[in-house]
Each structure stands twice: as structure tokens, then as C-alpha cells.
């Protein structure tokens, strides 16, 4: 049996791997191999496969026996190719060690550069480069990074200052200089030893000098970081399975900090914010890659087109030949990968090396534009274009933006790092952001710069504002991924964490003050700025049109008002899947009539109160029917328990008694008689209409009178009357009889008849179980997956907050089942209900109107079980349309 | 095509029907046919089939076209056989018209006797009988009965006096006589006309004189009464389908009131109260059947053995030849039907006629004795014996009886009409009984005599006491059917409905006073008399032994204390299926430790409070394990939400704060933070143990320490630890890990290990749906059908009272799903859960521990789905054992 292969070599125009081996080599490793294969100049190296990571964790953190030999053999190849030797004191080979999982996890995995340096090899580096300062700069960077990442020599809390920063700051102060670059070679040499001493003194650890020991330490750190708390959090947020593991890429170092003919940069082949087709990136002369990403020095644009001021110097102008080569490479990469690429490059003594290429993250706007334009360019087909835009991404496009006419008090301007509009109260820590969000407050997270520890807080915030860092800084990349508004590198900000405030010129903004961010302009504004509905681009319409061409699932909306109906129709809703009539009960002085009905002593009293409500309800329906002319409108009859309409405080009770002209005692007695231990499982839904048929009668009458009156005016109305909370077929028989009788009466009185359907919510487990019997009566089903989830899990949505977050945190549940439909459990009932319903009535119309109707994974599930439509809130209609198209694409795979 | 047959003739030693045609002819009709067939002297007649009733209601109360012709043809046959003509003025044939459904519904259906009499035909009756008084007595009875039953000439409320009674009472007063029998022929003739006049004056109706009109009116009244409120109530109480319909029996009249050589009687072939093998019945000389049943005159025993005083005159002594013939008939009937018979007979001028035979209702004691003795006699086999005793019947045997040593203040003695012991507050109307019961009060219904209108009140009462009527009176028959204690014919009682009191001698007993009844001795006692556990007879043990031989389902009990465990074990429980540990949390001062745990600020605080609870819980388990030595004991971990353990009133909160030495504010804050909108769906069950693993740990430790300590003493303990409210496999994985860790620790500390199982409740729909995954972890399943019903229906048991009764009333649900398992819906989940669980673990032990575990229909369902056991409250254990045996018998059918 041949030995299992764990290590894959790449470099010199060929590689043992390829882009198709992403699962084994990780995204970065597969791309390095692929780039080698297609002739891109990539420093040689090798990838330790993700299988090693998996095996490592499965075997109590032990490597497979074959690994060491394979690593040494690949290392030898690199040495041969580079003509250097690892650990050689004369001509030392240095390595970068990076993680690389299947999908990019920015900032999550730790990287070590310049590995292989010690007091001996540094001399070889000096000799070979003839640049002592560069060599010691590399050495001190290496010690810092290795001690931090591999040896975990870090301050325990965020309040403490980074001890390495303390040492370098002291050194700069002692030398009377401002920038790191002004430190001399001997300063840097001193730093190396001061660093090592500090590691020993403060952390009681000895820094390893032996290069091979350094290498295995770094490999171990990469695998270790896979199960670090930060990585786990990121995976949870992004639904990445823990068992995938990461690969390790060990690659020969090339140096962007070898003098002024050296540089480093990152770039996108198209603008990741707008999608514009232009080469877009940043570079720094005489620097190493992490200087760009970490945002410590503000980088320069790669080309003249990217310049925002004359002070900036572009690579295009500075190194025109190199820039031309880079351009040609990025064209090749886009052609090869047929997608926008995010690349890292280094120039070492005027020689260009590509360090990485990967599919670039982008905003929703950019994703749409790139997808549509690439179809125009003939790079991809329409289906690919659709699949390139994630439904959930659209969310950021569909939410309000600042009203251009609103008065804005612009305080400062930063980089427009991630588009969108956000207002919130200032917080300065991720923890505070999370805590405030849980209290229902909107916050903006303000940081000097963000780090992976901040991800939870960024997720909780409405927007992110940083004082440092560029468009590719951590904050910018992560915010774009989250579809969250971000203004980065707003250098006018002076942040005082201790005083919990920031200052711009003489203006103080304290923790808790309101600010607004415009992620598309980079503007920071004081206070809350008015927002309006964004206009959707032509590209958006084009892409949605393509999605509509292939999707099979209808998309309706949940809307209770003519206004919402209009918004949803503009977003492409093909009807209303849920109108909640009880929302109308609270409006204006209607609540008085509702309360009169509840307090009535008998049927006559209830009927007389209901008679007052009838014209109001009819008015609602007239408006909604008109807004949805020609499209079906599903109206759900009264659902909540009656006590929800009664007042709670002593004061309100007294007022009500006065208004109704009844004794306070009677109001109290009624409230007490209607009290329920578990209102969720109480006297609500069709149970109300069964005990008080006059309520159903009034609502059906209002719906059908409105429909008749509009039909008489030539307006096409398609009412669908939906009975909630059905658990047995007989309940529906009972309520359908009441509705049909009301219809007969209305049609006779109005002298005109309209077609209407009577159907039911399937939201009680028993309804799904007996769907065949219910379908004999029902003309349509609509799955109410909110309640169905509550009852199938036995979770009260109002109370589950005590344990649900922990359940998700601890992996007991993969996601919150109220956000993402639980296909394993609740989904069974949805599928069963659909099948059984159709078994009794083959053409039964089946939809969903729970929150899940706008959640992409759930929409795909609805497609899979063969529903006719999903219904969701207006702003999620485009998301559902796109998700429905994705469902078709995924099915055909 | 031949004409559909609707009318079936019987008489003269042959019949068109037979006993196997019960569904078509009803019980009474089938038996009349059968009796004819086997040569029993039955007055000829015909039966109109139940199909006519069904057709009648399906076709808007119209009879099938063929009916009239078939009735006339059968009537002609009867005329020929009796040598009389219906409506003939010289030799008139009279009919009785009775209902007859598939199963006997005593008192529910209306009967009309002497039909065919009018001012002309009565002369023929006088001529033929030579007895003018008899003829007019028949006539006035007929008019009274017909006007009441067919024409509905009745007072509207119970408070009003029966107008017919008013007329006859006035007549008696006018004539200065005391008994009806003392009225003369001309008195009776006057009564007939006064009755008819009253019908006209008061009810504005004309009494029909035409015999054929009378006949169709009576037939219509029988069918009408099928859908009368009383019949519907009875069917609901007894789960009889409404679509069965009733047959109508039209039979030639024979007369027990034709003088002193005539009589009428009812009898049982064995004692219906005790089951003793003796001919047991009552008769009245010169009377018609309803005189016996209605309890207006106190009847005499049929034989000398039945006499309780010398004043009584038995049929055996009075008419020895007839009695001998009757004895021979009853022997034949028992041999033929192989069951105890309830017969009606009439002696007309020394000629014996059998009017009816049917399977006799009996007490549970009698049912058992008869079943066992009939096996001894070779009449039936063991399986038949088992099937003769209804599981639900056993209930009456298993409840406490009066302590023989208790002091009793015996006030009076009546007939021991239905055995059992009952104490309650005196009520005088059925409505009051129902109302008081709903308030949770125990009542005894005291009536002069009961009527079908009283059924609801009888059901609500602990026991029934009547002043009039015999062992076969309405009260006695219905009470025995209900298994309810009844003392009948307690003639010492003077009831004053208006004053709401009764008097015995000089003792007044007022409404609301406590009395006690002994249905086995007929004693009426003042106050509440102490009860004890009854000793079960040898016959009971024999029958239960037979049941155990054939049942496949195990029977366990739900018990929380050693005492309950002991009772259940004595009743045959084969283990404990459910011990609720939270019940123990409330006992004594434990609640303090529980509250301390809840109020703790952190894990350490909780652990220290739990440490106080540990020895107490262990003590409980020691007791239960000992009581159940050698049998499995399933212990459920803490289930209710924690707020259930906290106080509610201001006073209690202050006390708690003081006891705990914490500020009142903190207690209130805790109560408020634990408040839940829907506690049923809140933070309870395993969700507690997952968030607070220390609770699970303490409980597992207490269970296993107790088990180890007993094992060390040589006592065999089989603990089964049950985790409640599991919805996903991962929850169980989590809790099992905590339990297993606790076990490891306990076993190490005690130096001894015990076998234990870890399993789960299946009480959440999702658990049933994902049972295959849960079974990979669980070692047993126990269906918690209480919660499963709540969640599958979306009904809160605490709140559903507002609509559930109406649901059952209106037929939306067949029964209360909390009493009888909903096989159509919830049952699907039970079946699915069992199958899927076993698909993952073939030998998975599956049981049920909801209330349904002791309900016979539900037990049969559990057998059908292949459960290993049911678990129910101790007193229902024998019921479950018998039901499990019935399940096997029904399956083999």
C-alpha cells in the first residue's frame, strides 16, 4: 500500500494540487497550486492538507506518522528551487506559515512570517541581502509575531498595553524618532533581544532558536487556532462545519521590505464596494503584507485612477513596468477563475511575486453589478450570475438609506468601507455592543481599529466606525461580509477609551450619544439622520428578472396596510400571503369597539359592538384590495386571545370602565376571567370564531362587502379567507359554514358575487398530521411556521430567550429555529402536511407565511417540498425571489 | 330489484330477525325475534329497523316510501295471530310502541302502551275483558303517556307540578281515596276526558282518536327522541355514535293490570349487585310494567329468597305454577345467551308473556363474580369471562369503602341499589350537583325519584339517594351503570324541595349538610364517614390472573411516595413508570433549600443549596426503591419551571426574604426575571438541567447513592433515570453525560456499582418526529401524552376549559383528548415515535406515563402500537391490566 499523501508541493510553474482540491488544500493552498499551474509567479512552498488537521484532532492532537518525512521532502524541494537552505547561516531560506481553510475566514487564522530567523541565520540574511536593517526588521517582526501567535505571549485583558508595543515605543522615544522606519538596524537588533527577554521574564517561556522547532511550532499553532474561541465564533456566525479543518501553507518568504525597490500590496480585480470594473487596490513601499492589512500605515492606491489626492503615490506611477505585469496577471486570473479576485502581491527588489488569489468578498451592490456585467462580457452565463449573488446579501440593498434632503451635521469623513446607512448610540467595546443590543438598543461600534475579537460586537452593531485602517482593513472586510455599514480610517477621530468618548476637533461625542454613518460616502454625522427607501439599480432589476425566469416558487408578502402592500408589490410580491386583521383592531379608536365587544354580556351585545367595527375593517380591506388589484390577498381571521385587547394598568382599567360606562369591577372581572396561564395555547385563533361565530361573521362580511364593492367598480379582487389555528377538520367545517353563510348574505344584498377561497393556516402539529382530512375542506394551506415551531419544539418564543442562545452557542441546536426553519423536525411536519393535503386535494394551493418565508435556506426548503408560494415581509420579497431561483439551480446540480 | 326490507315480524315461535341482527333491529328487537325463534312466549309484533331512523334524519325527517306498506302488512299478521283487529270497536288489538337502539339506553327512549284506544275501541276492550275498570285504567294511562311522550304535554320547568298528577290527585281527593287502584271505572273514564280537555286547554293540542294516527305519532316520537337532548347526553356520556339510530318495536299489548290473576315484573337471572347466582326480581300484581320501573309503587320480590320481611308477598308463593314456568324460561335464556339476562314479563289472566330479555347491567362486583362463576359452570371460557368485565367498571371496586370500625350515625336505611361508599353535601337538583361539582365540591344528589333529566347530576354526584323506587328503578339502574353508589327507595325520607331539606323522623338535613351513603348496605348516615381501602375478592384475583395470563403489555404505576408505590404494587403494578421528583421539592422545609437554590447568584450558591437537598431526595428514593424492590423504578428529573417554587403573595415574599436573609427587592427581581408568558413552553424540563447542570447532577447523585446503599444491603434496585422534555438528541446527549459522570463519581465513592438506564420522555412533537435520532442515545422512551397532547393540539390544559367542553358538546372533538388519547392525531406521533425509536434501537423499551396510561381505550392503543408497558395512577393499575387483556382479545377477533 502506498503511503498516504499529506503534503502537496507547488512552485516553479507546476504544482501537485489544483483549484479543484479546495477541500483537501483549503482555499489558499488550492489557489497557490492553481496559480503555479497557470504560470503565475508564486514563491514555492507546500501545503499540509486539511486531513492532517482532522486527524490531529481525532487523535488527541497527534500528527500522522508519515507527516514529518513528507514535510522534510517538500522543504528540500523548496530549498532546491530557491537555492537557499532552511536554517543555513549563509544563505537562509525563510518561510511564511499560514492557515487556509476551505472558505476564507479573514483574520481568524494566525500567520507567521520570516520563520527560520535566529541570531545566526540573520547574519546570512544580512550577507545575502546586503541590508542589515531589513534583516533585523524581519527578525524583530518574526519574534514579535511568533511570540504572539505561536507562544501566546499576549496581555490577558484588552485594557493592558501590548508589551511588544511598549518596548518599541520606548525604543522610539529613546531614539527620539516617530516611525518604526526611522529605527536603525542596531535599534532593531536590540529590540529582538529585548523582546526575547520580555518573553522569558513576563511569560516564563523561552523563545525557540532552532528553525525546525520554529516550523513545527508554527504548524501546530495554525492547527491550534482552528479550535480557538475566535475561529469557533466565526464558524458559528457563518455556519461553517467544525469538522472541515484547516490546511497549513508553508511558503518561501519574499520580501516587500527590502528597500525602496520592494513593496507589498493587496488588490481586487473589480471594486468590491461598487462592482465597477477597475483594478482596485492598495500598496505600501518597503513593507510587509501585514502592514497593509493591519491598517497601521495608511496604504496608497495601486493606480492613478484610485487616487483621491495628489499626495498619494500609485504603484502605476512609481513602478510602471511592475504595474503592467500585475495588470496582465489580474486579467489572466479573472479569465481563469471567471470571478472577481482578491490578490496579495509582493515586490522584492523589483521582482513581482503573487502571494495569494481568492474570490473577492463584495457588497451586494458590487455582487449584482459584477454578476450582470460578467454576463455581458461573456465570462459567465445567467445562471452563474444568479448563483453569484447570495439572497441574504440583498438585505443591505433593501433597507432605507439616508434621505439626501435630510439635514446632516457632518462631523468627519472616513473611508466608505461598506455601504449602507446606520444610526445608533456610540459604544466603544464589542461587549457593550452586544449587551446594548440585547436590550433592544441600536448601537454604532467605534474602535481605533477592529480585530477578530470584535466580531460579536460588529454583528450586534448597526454600523462600525474605525479611526485607522483602509478599505481592506479587518473592519472593512468583515463589515462588507456582514452587509453592515462601515466607515473606516476616519483619522480625525481621537478616541479616549478610558473616558468613553471620542473627539473630532473640539467636539466631544460620548458613549451613548447618537451618531449616524453613511457607508457609501464615508460620512460621520451627529445625531439620528432621517432615512428613505433606496432606489434599486438597473442591474438589480436585470438580475431579479433572470431569477424570476427560472424560479418556480411564487413570492407573496405579509402586509397589513395598503402602504406595506404597495412597498411589497414594488419589490415584486405576487400577492399577499398574510394580512393580520388583529393589527387593525388596535388602530385609533377601534380598540374601544373591540373592548365593548369583549365586555359584552351576550351575543346581542357582541353583535352591536361588532357592527361598529365592520365599516372600519371594510375600509382596511378596500385599501389593501386596491393596492393589490388583480393579485390574491389572503386575510387571516382574528387570531390573538381576547385579553390582548384589554388594558393592564389600574389607570387604563379605570379609563376603560369610564368610557364603557360599566363598573370598574366588571372590567376587572372580565380581565381576570380571560386571564390565561399559557395564552399561546389558549382561547385564540379559530377557537374564538367557534365560540363566538359572530366575530367570524363580521370579518367575513367586511372582507366580502369590500370585495363586492370594488368588483362593482371594475376592480379585480381575489380574496382568500384564512382560518387560523385549525387543529381538526371539523373546526374548519364549522368556520367555513359561517363564512359561506355570510358570503351568501353579502352577495344577495350587494347583488354581485365574487370568487373567494376559504383555507387555513397549518400551524398546529395536529393539523399537519391530519392534513388529508383538513384538505377535504380547505381550499388552500398556509404554513404558519412561527407557531408550528413553537408547538413542535415546545418553545414559547417569548420565553425561550433564557435558553435558546445557549443552545445555539453549545451546538445543541445548529441555528435559532425561529430564524431558520428546522428542517429536521418542523420541516417533517411541513412536508407531511403538504403531501397529505395534496393526497386529498391534488391541486391544493400551499404556501408559507411564517418569518421563515423570507429566509433563504427555508425558502429553498419550501421549494423542495413543492409549495406554491412563500410569503414574507415586504423588504424580504427580493431575497425570497432570489432564493427561489437558487433553489432551482441547486436542485439541478 | 326487490323492495328494501324495513319491517321485521316476530311472534308465534318464529321471527324474521334474530339476535345477530342487533345493528339493524336494535337490542330489544333482535332479542324479541330471538326469543320468538327459541319458543319463548312473546306477544307478536314487528320491528322497524334502525335504517329507517338513519334514513329519516338523512332525508329531512321523511320516511322511506316503502315503509307504510310494510308496516300495514306486518300489522295484519299480528291481527291474524292475536285474532283481534287494530281499531276494531268489538275486539280491538292494542299495541306497545318502544324504542330499541343497538345498546340499551335505559330511560332514554320513550315508550307508549295501550296504543289504539279511543272512546269506541275502549268499549270493545270492556266487552272482551269484561272488566270496565281495567279498560278505562288502560285508556287513561294511554292518554297520559301519549300526551306526555308523543305530544310533549309537559310542564316547562321542574318546579311545576305534572298537570296529569294534579288531575288524578284532585280526583282521589274528591273520591276520598288514597291509591289509584281505589278509583272506579267511571272515575277513570272521567279522568280520560279531563286529561284530553286539559291537553286542549293548556297545550292547545287535540288528542288523536284515530288508532292509525296514534301509531304513526308514536313511531315518530321514538325517532324524535333519538335526537332529544337527553338521549344525546346519554350517548355522549357513554361514547355511543349518533349515527347508529334506534329501531321501533311495535308489539301486541298484553295486560298485567287485568285483575288479580294478572301481574307484571322485571327480573335478573343473577343478582345484578352482587353477582350471586339466584333469580332476582320484582313484581306487582294487577299492574303494568311502568309501575315497576317508575318506582311509584314499591314492588314485591319474585321469590321467597328475595323477601326482606314477612309483609312481602312473592310471585313464587302467590302463583307457583307461573313462577315455575318463569324459572324454566330464565334457565333457557341464560343457556341460550350465555350471559346474565334482564327480563320483563307480564301475566295476563294467568298466562305468562315475556316482553323483553337483554343482557343485564351489573355492578363491577357482580360482573366479576358472574364471569368467574360462569367459567366454573362451563357456560363460557376464560377469554369470554375477561371480555365480560369492562376495565372502566373496576374503578368502583378500587376506591375506598367505609371503615367498618368508623362510628356511623345511621339515619335511615334504603335499598342497596348500587354498591360503593360516598360522602358529600346534600343537593336536591341535578343542576346544583353539576354546579357544585364544578366548584370542586363533593355532593350527594337526593331526589324523590330520578328521571332521565337527572343523568348529568347523577354523573356529577358522589352518590344518589332516592326516597322511592326499587332495585330496578331509574336511579338504581343508571347508578349501577355509572358504577356510582346509590341508595334507593329510602322511604323514611320526607323531602321538601321548596325548603331545600329532607326530614327523617325529627331530624332535618338541609341542602349543604354532609351525609354518607353505603350502596352495599343501603345505609344513610349523617356526616362524613371514614373510608378504607376495600379488600378485593377472590373472584377479582382470579379474573385478574386470567387477564395477566393473556396480556402482553406491562403495567406500571405513577407514584411519588413509598406509600403510593406500595398501594400500586398491591394492585399488581410491575414497576414505577413515573416518579415526579418535583413533588418532593415542596415537602416540609425542603422548599427553603429549593428557593435558596433558585435565588443563588451563581453556580457555587446553587451547588451549596443543592447539597442541602441531596440527602432529602436520597431519602425519598431509598423509600421508593425499597417499596419496589426487584422492580424497575423510573425517576423523572426536575420538570416544572423554577418560578413554580417561588411564592406569589406579598406576605410570602417578605417571609422568604427574611428566611433567606436577602432584600425583598431581590426576591421580587428574581420572581420577575423568572416570569414566563407561556410557562408550559418555557424554561423547564431538560432545559433546566442543560442550563443548570448542577441540578441534574444532584438528582442523579441522590438516585444512584440511594441505589448503591440499598444494593450494599442486598436489596435489588433497578433505577431508570428519565430526562423530561427532550426535543433533540443533543439535549439528551448533554444530560446523559452529566448523569453518567455523576454515576461514575458515586460508584467510585461507594465502591459499588448498580445498573441504571438513562432514557427520556417523548412529550414534545419534535421528539416523536426525530425519535430515531433520540433512540441512538436513549435506553428507553416513555410517552408523556399529557404534554404531547397539549403541544400537538396547541391546547393549554389549564386554559382549554373555555372551549373544550363546547368542542365535545358540538362534536368538533369526539372526546376530551386529555381523558381519551386522540389516536387520530396525537396517536400518530406515539406510533411514529415508537416505530422510529425501534428502527434505531430494535429492543428499545417503550412505555407511556401520561394520564392516558390508565384509560382503557388508550391502553388498547398502546398495545396496538407495540409498547412494552403503560404506567398509571395506583388505583387504575387493575383497569390497565384488564384493558391490556381486552386489547389482546380484540386483536384476535
Summarize the structure in words.
- Two copies of one chain form a homodimer.
- Chain A has 893 residues and is an alpha/beta fold.
- Chain A is built from 35 helices and 34 strands.
- In chain A, the strands form seven sheets. In chain A, strands 15-25-24-17-18-19-20-16 form an eight-stranded mixed β-sheet.
- In chain A, α28 links the parallel β30 and β31 (757-762).
- In chain A, α6 runs antiparallel to α7 (185-203), α13 (364-376) packs across α19 (538-550) and α19 packs across α35 (877-892).
- Chain A is elongated, with a radius of gyration of 32 Å.
- The first copy, chain A, starts with 6 loop residues before the first strand and ends with a helix.
- The relative contact order of chain A is 0.06.
- At the A-B interface, α26, α28, α29, α31 and α33 of A face α26, α28, α29, α31 and α33 of B.
Give the class of chain A from helix and strand content and strand pairing: alpha/beta
Helical amount of chain A:
40-55%
> How many strand units of chain A?
34
> What is the alpha-carbon Rg of chain A in Å?
32 Å
The N- to C-terminal Cα distance of chain A equals 35 Å
Mean pLDDT of chain A: 90
Oligomer: homodimer
Beta-strand portion of chain A reads: 15-25%
Number of helices of chain A: 35
Sheet bearing the most strands of chain A, described?
8 strands, mixed
Largest Cβ-defined interface: A-B, 48 and 48 residues
Strand order of the largest sheet of chain A: 15-25-24-17-18-19-20-16
* pLDDT < 50 runs, ≥5 residues of chain A: none
Query: Which overall shape of chain A is indicated by the principal axes computed on the Cα atoms?
Result: elongated
Amino acid at each position: 500500500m502506498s503511503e498516504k499523501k499529506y503534503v502537496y508541493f507547488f512552485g516553479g510553474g507546476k504544482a501537485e494540487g489544483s483549484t479543484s482540491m479546495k477541500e483537501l488544500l483549503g482555499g489558499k493552498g488550492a489557489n497557490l497550486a492553481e496559480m503555479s499551474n497557470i504560470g503565475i509567479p508564486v514563491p514555492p512552498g507546500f501545503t499540509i492538507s486539511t486531513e492532517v488537521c482532522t486527524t490531529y484532532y481525532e487523535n488527541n492532537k497527534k500528527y500522522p506518522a508519515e507527516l514529518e518525512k513528507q514535510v522534510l521532502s517538500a522543504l528540500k524541494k523548496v530549498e532546491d528551487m530557491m537555492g537557499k537552505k532552511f536554517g543555513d547561516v549563509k544563505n537562509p531560506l525563510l518561510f511564511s506559515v499560514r492557515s487556509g481553510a476551505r472558505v476564507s475566514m479573514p483574520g481568524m487564522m494566525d500567520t507567521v512570517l520570516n520563520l527560520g530567523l535566529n541570531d545566526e541565520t540573520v547574519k546570512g540574511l544580512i550577507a545575502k541581502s546586503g541590508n542589515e536593517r531589513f534583516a533585523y526588521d524581519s527578525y524583530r517582526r518574526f519574534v514579535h509575531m511568533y511570540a504572539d501567535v505561536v507562544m501566546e505571549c499576549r496581555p490577558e485583558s484588552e485594557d493592558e498595553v501590548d508589551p511588544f508595543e511598549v518596548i518599541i515605543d520606548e525604543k522610539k522615544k529613546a531614539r527620539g524618532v516617530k516611525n518604526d522606519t526611522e529605527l536603525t538596524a542596531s535599534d532593531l537588533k536590540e529590540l529582538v533581544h529585548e523582546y526575547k527577554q520580555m518573553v522569558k521574564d513576563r511569560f516564563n517561556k523561552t523563545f525557540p532558536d532552532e528553525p525546525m522547532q520554529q516550523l513545527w511550532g508554527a504548524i501546530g499553532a495554525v492547527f491550534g487556532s482552528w479550535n480557538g474561541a475566535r475561529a469557533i465564533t466565526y464558524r458559528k456566525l457563518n455556519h461553517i462545519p467544525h469538522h472541515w479543518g484547516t490546511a497549513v501553507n508553508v511558503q518561501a518568504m519574499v520580501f516587500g521590505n527590502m528597500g525602496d525597490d520592494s513593496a507589498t500590496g493587496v488588490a481586487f480585480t473589480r471594486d468590491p464596494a461598487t462592482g465597477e470594473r477597475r483594478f482596485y487596490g492598495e500598496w505600501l513601499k518597503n513593507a510587509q503584507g501585514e502592514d497593509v492589512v493591519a491598517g497601521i500605515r495608511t496604504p496608497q492606491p495601486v493606480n492613478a485612477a484610485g487616487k483621491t489626492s495628489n499626495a498619494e503615490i500609485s504603484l502605476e506611477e512609481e513602478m510602471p513596468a511592475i504595474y503592467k505585469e500585475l495588470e496582465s496577471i489580474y486579467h489572466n486570473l479573472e479569465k481563469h477563475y471567471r470571478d472577481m479576485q482578491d490578490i496579495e502581491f509582493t515586490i522584492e527588489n523589483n521582482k513581482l511575486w503573487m502571494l495569494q488569489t481568492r474570490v473577492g468578498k463584495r457588497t451586494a451592490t458590487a455582487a449584482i453589478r459584477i454578476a450582470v456585467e460578467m454576463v455581458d462580457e461573456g465570462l459567465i452565463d445567467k445562471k452563474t450570475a444568479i448563483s453569484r449573488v447570495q439572497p441574504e446579501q440583498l438585505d443591505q440593498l433593501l433597507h432605507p438609506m439616508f434621505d439626501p434632503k435630510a439635514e446632516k451635521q457632518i462631523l468627519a469623513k472616513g473611508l466608505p468601507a461598506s455601504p449602507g446607512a446606520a444610526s445608533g448610540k456610540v459604544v466603544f467595546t464589542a461587549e457593550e455592543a452586544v449587551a446594548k443590543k440585547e436590550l433592544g438598543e441600536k448601537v454604532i461600534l467605534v474602535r481605533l481599529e477592529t480585530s477578530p475579537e470584535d466580531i460579536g460586537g460588529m454583528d450586534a452593531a448597526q454600523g462600525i466606525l474605525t479611526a485607522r485602517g483602509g478599505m481592506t482593513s479587518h473592519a472593512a472586510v468583515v463589515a462588507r461580509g456582514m452587509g453592515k455599514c462601515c466607515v473606516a480610517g476616519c483619522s480625525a477621530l481621537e478616541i479616549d477609551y478610558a473616558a468613553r468618548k471620542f473627539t473630532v476637533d473640539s467636539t466631544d461625542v460620548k458613549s451613548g450619544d447618537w451618531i449616524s454613518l453613511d457607508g457609501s460616502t464615508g460620512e460621520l454625522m451627529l445625531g439620528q439622520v432621517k432615512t428613505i427607501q433606496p432606489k434599486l439599480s438597473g442591474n438589480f432589476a436585470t438580475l431579479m428578472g433572470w431569477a424570476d425566469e427560472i424560479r418556480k416558487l411564487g413570492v407573496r408578502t405579509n402586509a397589513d396596510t395598503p402602504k406595506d402592500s404597495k412597498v411589497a408589490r414594488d419589490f415584486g410580491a405576487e400577492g399577499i400571503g398574510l394580512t393580520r386583521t388583529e393589527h387593525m383592531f388596535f388602530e385609533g379608536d377601534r380598540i374601544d369597539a373591540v373592548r365593548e365587544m369583549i365586555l359584552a354580556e351576550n351575543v346581542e351585545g357582541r353583535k352591536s359592538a361588532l357592527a361598529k367595527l365592520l365599516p372600519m375593517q371594510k375600509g382596511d380591506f378596500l385599501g389593501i384590495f386596491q393596492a393589490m388589484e388583480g393579485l390574491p390577498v389572503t386575510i387571516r381571521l382574528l387570531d390573538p386571545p381576547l385579553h390582548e385587547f384589554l388594558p393592564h394598568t389600574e389607570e387604563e382599567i379605570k379609563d376603560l370602565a369610564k368610557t364603557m360606562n360599566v363598573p370598574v369591577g366588571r372590567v376587572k372581572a372580565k380581565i381576570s376571567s380571560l386571564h390565561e396561564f399559557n395564552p399561546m395555547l389558549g382561547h385564540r385563533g379559530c377557537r374564538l370564531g367557534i365560540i363566538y361565530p359572530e366575530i367570524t361573521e363580521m370579518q367575513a362580511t367586511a372582507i366580502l362587502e369590500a370585495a363586492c364593492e370594488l368588483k362593482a367598480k371594475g376592480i379585480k379582487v381575489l380574496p382568500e379567507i384564512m382560518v387560523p389555528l385549525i387543529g381538526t377538520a371539523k373546526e374548519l367545517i364549522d368556520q367555513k359554514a359561517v363564512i359561506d353563510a355570510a358570503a351568501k348574505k353579502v352577495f344577495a344584498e350587494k347583488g354581485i358575487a365574487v370568487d373567494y377561497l376559504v383555507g387555513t393556516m397549518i400551524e398546529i402539529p395536529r393539523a399537519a398530521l391530519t392534513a388529508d382530512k383538513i384538505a377535504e375542506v380547505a381550499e388552500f394551506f398556509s404554513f404558519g411556521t412561527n407557531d408550528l415551531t413553537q408547538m413542535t419544539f415546545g418553545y414559547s418564543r417569548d420565553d425561550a430567550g433564557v435558553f435558546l442562545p445557549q443552545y445555539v452557542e453549545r451546538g445543541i441546536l445548529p441555528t435559532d429555529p425561529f430564524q431558520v426553519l428546522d428542517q429536521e423536525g418542523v420541516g417533517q411536519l411541513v412536508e407531511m402536511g403538504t403531501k397529505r393535503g395534496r393526497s386529498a386535494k391534488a391541486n391544493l394551493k400551499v404556501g408559507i407565511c411564517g418569518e421563515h418565508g423570507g429566509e433563504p435556506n427555508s425558502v429553498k426548503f419550501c421549494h423542495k417540498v413543492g409549495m406554491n408560494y412563500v410569503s414574507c415581509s415586504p423588504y424580504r420579497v427580493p431575497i425570497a425571489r432570489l432564493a427561489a431561483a437558487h433553489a432551482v439551480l441547486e436542485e439541478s446540480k
